[in-house]
Amino acid sequence: xxxxxxxxxxxxxxxxxxxxxxxxxxxxxxxxxxxxxxxxxxxxxxxxxxxxxxxxxxxxxxxxxxxxxxxxxxxxxxxxxxxxxxxxxxxxxxxxxxxxxxxxxxxxxxxxxxxxxxxxxxxxxxxxxxxxxxxxxxxxxxxxxxxxxxxxxxxxxxxxxxxxxxxxxxxxxxxxxxxxxxxxxxxxxxxxxxxxxxxxxxxxxxxxxxxxxxxxxxxxxxxxxxxxxxxxxxxxxxxxxxxxxxxxxxxxxxxxxxxxxxxxxxxxxxxxxxxxxxxxxxxxxxxxxxxxxxxxxxxxxxxxxxxxxxxxx
Length: 313
Prior knowledge:
alpha+beta; four-stranded mixed β-sheet; elongated
C-alpha cells in the first residue's frame, strides 16, 4: 500500500517482534506514516513500531525504546559487489542500551534478529545491519545471548536475516484439556514457522499443557499422566487421514481417566491433526493394531472427525 499526499506517505511494513516466551519472532503488519521514503526515515519509524512489541498478544515481551537510544540517524553504507541488495544499514546506539536490554530481559540476539529481519525486508536494497552499542561493533553472540541457544560469530560486522531464519515463529491454535473434566480449551501457541504444519512439532505443543503466559490456570497436557511424547510412536499422513500409533503404555495410562477425560485426550489429538492440511480424519492404533478401546470407555475402532463440540470456552 502506498498513498502519497501533501504531507505524508503511508506504507505497510512487517515488523518482527518477540513472541511470548522469547524463543521466536512474530511478523506483525504495521502502518508507517512517513515524511519521505529515505532509508533513515523508514528505519526511524520501524524502530518506533518495534517498541510497541507484539500488539494484542497476551504476555508479549517488552521491547526497549530503541529510537531513544539511537545516536543520530541510521547510516546507509555501500557494499562492494554486484548483488541486488548492495547496502548495509549502520545503527549506533548509546551504551545505555545495554542496561535497557537487561532491564526488560531481552537478549542481544533478539535485538539483532529484530533489526536484521525488519530492516532488510522493508528498506530497499539492504542486505544486513551493522549494530554498535557504544564504541563497540557487535560481532559475536554467546549461546546465552541468542534465542535458540546457539552462539554466532561473524566474519565481519554484518548481521543478515539468514542468521536468524530459524527464529521466525507462527501462531497455531490447539485445544488442550481443562483440568479435571476433560473439556477442551482453545489455546494459542507459537511454533517455528517452518513447522506449523508438521504433526510431530505440534505434538510437543499438546504435551506442554499450561504455560506461564496463559491468561488462565486450569489447562492440562493432552497426554495422560505417565505418558510422554515418546509414547506416540508415529503419526503418518495418508491422503486426508492421519494415523496415530501409540504405545501400550499410552493406552494403559488412559485407564486412570474418566470417559470425559479420555475423550479430551483423543479429541485434543483429533482437533490438532485436522488443522493440518489435508487431514480430515484421524485413526488410532496401539502398537500397530486398532483396538476396541484404550481403557474400556471410548470406542477406538474406525476413525474420528473434528469435534468442535468438545470446546468448552
